Amino acid sequence: MTQKEIYQDRGDLAEEPMVIDRQVNGLRMIAAENCAEYEVSLKTEVYALVVNLADQVTIHYNGLKGTLRRNKKVFIKLNDATLAIAGNEKSTYFILAFDHAYIREVGLEDSFSHELLFRDEQNCCLIDHIPAIVGKLMDLKQTSLKNVLMRVYLRAKVSMILCLLLDSLQNNIKSARSKVPADQQEKVLLVKEMIENNLDQNYTISALSKEVGTNEQYLKLNFKKYVGQTIFGYMTACKMNRAKILLKTTDLKISQISQQVGYKHPTHFAGAFKRFFGYIPNMIRCMGFYLADSLELFILGEELLLPF
């Protein structure tokens, strides 16, 4: 007896699971319908937008687990190559993934900052309901275009989706920042500048609050509202991104780089780097990761229709 016949005997006809996978260099769109479980292997340092259109699903990413309710969206920076979604036989969702090279190509690099996108240290953020994004994803799923035309269409639609996404996030940031008093904004910006210009230092919140003349609790609260991250989260992000640049552009030893970003012991630095990026510092040099930003991270492919 087939799966359909079993459901018919129960009086509940279920549609067969289906996945559409469209790929272009640096870009990938997956549409899963009636798919209880799906796991996709992507490259590290890839961003993914997950849009859930049916019952609640569970998302596994970066060694973490989270739930996504019906008609909700989440935006994730993947440090782990695997993204897995688990739901039920009626689960329907989209996964849109793209890399840094694509972001640069469409001219959104300056707008696409970690500070803007992620309001916590888990490299993910929930997205407000934006009907136009779902509409454009449905267009991508339903298009009958092939080969070059499909690839051009995919890039155009995804660029529009990213613009809508960034506009929504920027409006949220403006709203949050408007709630921080002007005098406290100045203090937050001073702390931000101190962190950025002294990455070899490991400031305490007490020291920073005294330096700018404010209360510790006010500083923590207003920094999170204005910047979108905790003070320590922002400090870590600045240190790791600086270390990555030094690994790519200099011949400095790991021990020297770790000192420059405030780590006395290279092993502690390597551990922090791996937690942040998903790979150890040596991989950038030993495996050619210094070229990663310009590599085409996805294989150029045609439309795939995968019934299960």
Automatic annotation (TrEMBL):
InterPro entries, from UniProt? Answer: Homeodomain-like_sf, HTH_AraC, PchR_regulatory_protein
In its UniProt entry, what is this protein called? AraC-like DNA-binding protein
What is the top-level taxon of the source organism? Bacteria
Under the heading Pfam families, the entry gives:
HTH_18
Q: PANTHER family per the record?
A: REGULATORY PROTEIN PCHR (PTHR47893:SF1)
Keyword ATP-binding appears in the UniProt entry: no
Q: Which terms in the Gene Ontology molecular function aspect does this entry carry? A: DNA-binding transcription factor activity; sequence-specific DNA binding
Would you indicate the residue range of the signal peptide?
none
Keyword set for this entry? DNA-binding, Transcription, Transcription regulation
Location of the HTH araC/xylS-type domain: 189-287
